[in-house]
Specification:
mainly alpha; globular; 624 residues
Amino acid sequence: MSEKVNQSSYKKLFSNTIIFAIGSFSSKVLVLLLVKVYTTYLSPEEMGINDVITQIANWLQPLVTLTVSEAIIRFGLDKAYNKIRVFTLGNIICFAGLAVLGVILPIVAISGVADKYLSGYSVLLYVYIFSSSLKLVYSTFVRALERVKLFAINGILTTFFTLAGTLLFMIGFKMGNTGYLLSIIVSDLISVVFLTFTAKLWRYLDFKRIDRELLHTMLQYSIPLIPAQILWLITNSSDSFMTTHYLGSEANGILSASYKIPNLVATVYLMFGQAWNMSAILENDSEDRDKFYTNVFNLNQCLLYILAAGCLMIVQPLTSIWLGESFQESVRYSPILIYSSIFSCFTTFLGSIYLASKETKRSMITSLFSGIINVGLNIILIPRIGLYGPPISTVASYLAVFIIRGYDSRKLVPFDLKIKKIVINNIILAAMVVINITQPFVKSKALSFALLPVLFIVITIINFGSLWSIVKKMIPARILNIAEKMGTKRLIFLAAAALVFILMCYITKGIILFAIFIPVLVMGIFKGQKKLVYISVIGIVIADILYGNFGTGMIMLAACWLIPLGLYRKKRDLIVEILIADIIIYLLGGIYWAVFCLMIEMLVLILVFRRSVWFLVERLLFRK
């Protein structure tokens, strides 16, 4: 019986991770795609101002909401508490905090004491905090209802409107930082409305019966998390403020760009972390808790080591392709921040133990060390070694807190950290960091470029066995059978082959992609296989965007579009071809014309398929 429960725990964690990944994937891909937009349409100074404003909002949100979202997920998942009372109290606390901020922020703006940081954005800052706070509370309660699929759909919807807002406000109307904030505000407010109606959240509001005892319990749980979150924010954002103070907004813009690639590691962990947070709460009283925590932490660290090593291997070519010319200097600091992201994710994982055990005061105390170390080292290092100071102080602060939490959290849940594995992997990763940051000063780069893939393969070999043994407990039997038939050696070979192929694409400037997809296109046309045609068209479009010559690329893309348009006339095919046409319009006429055409197409599609659209809306909003 215990083994069955254990297996179901792993499968539920896996299932929730996949669902959260689907919901987060579109938004994270959007962030990756928009990095090029931000670094192209904003100067380094504007990026620095934008980063500071965002950090101020992140600092104020825990104070305004009293971190009530953490109490909502903890008590909302606990069957001992009434969900209606939990959500009602969550709303009361959130709106009370927003009302207080609405009084204080205008006074601060009029006094001018924060003009250096607010830069005239005080009104937008309030609206930004208002919308993001409501979205956080409402989306967290949907997770507490265990409606993870709805949570994922909401993530996709938010992504779409963020993209539309960015294209409209930043590129269409050229509103700069104001456009950036407006795009997020609009998408967050739409998210709140969507969740309210689809989950019928008004059914969970009852202001007539205020449970004062539960209010006291929730506040007792959430209030210690306020300094804990602020201290983490100090660790994360003191770099920005202190860099702006010592080196100026332009240097802070470079530092902000340096976080883009390290955030890939944090992004992957976030998809897992949301599911893990739920599992940690639900499994807190289970018999197999200690073993479950040990296996999940082992899975977590194996995945992070491989991911971080992969990022360290490709950080230099990825920076040259992904970031604008003004931000190429960021490649000097990104490797250190990639390394720091590992310990950031570890400390977050261990923090879930405090949340599940209702020991939030320990979270506050351990976070205190992070803030002190980070600020202290920034004061010492930034004036002396410039932009290398913030990444080094970040590594030191996260490492210190990981050591403290690793010792302290095991008093609550005595699971195995696997210290030997941590030491071996960190030595190899540290070597990859050193190779990357010394490359600009080395005349011959051939040796370092050869060493990085070798070290990545070593990290993969060390961790793949443990990773696979745990993943086998989580994935569906059908997929497991296919993987087992292939064998570990073949899986490693396929991963290595994929890596070599990516490197070949980089070396040949994408020529190999054209050499593959053009014959596939021809074969698909002659054999009448739509999938081959569309796969090859999409492949050629991606290759041309990344590497292609504009003139020849346009002729090739036009041909790729016209051929399937002449062959396939079904509704689904026409939609795909219209999307390809939009990409061509974007490449030929710019983003403004592409968005304009897209809006017209959406209007036409809504009119043509009005019955289907209404049926979908009716199912989502009015189903019983």
